[in-house]
Amino acid sequence: MIARPAPSPNDTAAQHDAPGRPPWHTVEPDAIVLRLQTSPQGLSQDEARRRLERDGPNQLAETPPTSPFVILLHQFRSLLIYILVAATLVTLLLEEFIDAGVIAAVLALNAIIGFTQERKAEQSVRALMRLMAKAHVVRGRREWSIETQGSEPSPARQGRRWPRLPFAGVRPDC
User: Could you give the CA distance from residue 40 to residue 168 in angstroms, rounded to a whole number?
Assistant: First the structure.
């Protein structure tokens, strides 16, 4: 599972999401620009570096992949599964082998489906994180392409007014 690191005390996004504040998507773009202390022309390079030093990089913490064995074990962590395992054991003790086989087949099918879905979901999250390796930002009225790990920006391709943003972004002209 991928977890977001705890926000720093200076994290303006975390402050905005505090109880009693409206969700980001309901706030007018001008209000967001004011709250984030920026402008539609973007931050200056010096201000961007200062914020990077103060707040740290804007990235998700990556955790090691979950082993297939652990994913398989996760499929047997529910009360209903425990009841079905107990029912299988009871039917075996009663020598009802066909019933026990049917219940065991349901348990196996459930484990296979759950394992497959959980494994694909984790792979999808990791693929999305790889797609988020670069972000497009505005610095001093110029569009830049930066690594999300906080490296120095490079000029972005011209001709794309608003490229896809890997993080929740607000277009100032909305």
Answer: 16
